[in-house]
Design brief:
Helices cover 39% and strands 27% of the residues. It is α+β, with helices and mostly antiparallel strands and 85 residues long. 7% of the residues are buried.
Length: 85
């Protein structure tokens, strides 16, 4: 079975032109939070993309969120996005 983070990376690379991506699972930092649920991820994306840097930050985030929409309904609780210049 494929690692879930690999699946996320594959989805993003398939739908957005990226030079580099790093996905960090920060779920362990949120275990004691009131609304923590096992199986729901807190992820941080570090992305290098000439394409995403050529558009507004809001539109870049919208594109990423659209690609991961189904994942927010099932597996992702929180997502931090960092688009490197």
């Amino acid at each position: 079975m494929k690692n879930y983070l690999d699946e996320i990376e594959e989805k993003l690379k398939k739908n957005i032109k990226l030079e580099n991506i790093e996905i960090i699972d920060n779920s362990h930092l949120h275990r004691k939070h009131k609304f923590y649920r096992p199986g729901r991820y807190h992820l941080k994306l570090n992305i290098k993309s000439l394409y995403l840097n050529s558009i507004s930050k809001i539109n870049a985030h919208k594109i990423i969120m659209k690609v991961l929409k189904a994942d927010f309904e099932t597996k992702i609780h929180a997502l931090e996005i960092n688009i490197e210049k």
